[in-house]
Amino acid sequence: MPVQPKKTRRRGLWGWPRTRWLLGIPLGGFLAFLVGAATMVGSSVAIEATSTDAFCATACHSHEEFIYPEWKESVHYSNPSGMRAGCADCHIPKQYPDKLIVKTTAGIRDGYHEFVLRSISTRERFEARRGEMAERVWERMRANDSQACRNCHHVDSFSGQSARAERMHQRMETTDNTCIDCHEGVAHLHPADAARKYATND
Question: Which residues bind heme 4 (predicted)?
Fold first, then answer.
């Protein structure tokens, strides 16, 4: 009687590995997935919690004393349409990874100047740096074609604007100019206006 060849069981994809170290591959992948998911959820929750107007207004002394009151007097806070543009609407990009990058770098920089260097902790120190801080924001807006403005405002949808404003907006679409080139100081005092205001108060 001929000897029958021994049947070998084919190992499927999900078969038990012959060596235990191979278990580390799926377990490591699953662990990496959990860590990645937790990091994404955690960062998203942290970003949202630290992007509210209430947080921005009270987290730093300079924001509560100098920046927040200016915003509350601006057209971005109160206007005939009842629409309100908050801190995050103008200062934090909506898309990832830009949102995470700006939020992280701005938080570190502002915190360092506020709590370590104390370079913006008094009215005098804040006003001395207002122009530099404003220019940094304006340059970022010029670099992204004032995307924060365009998230809410659409040039082809303006109604009731003056003939001059309409011409300027039409010209903007065919030149390198962008919203911030004409609308500096919309939500916060322009450095030149602030200099005149606080020089007068002194």
Answer: 179, 182-183
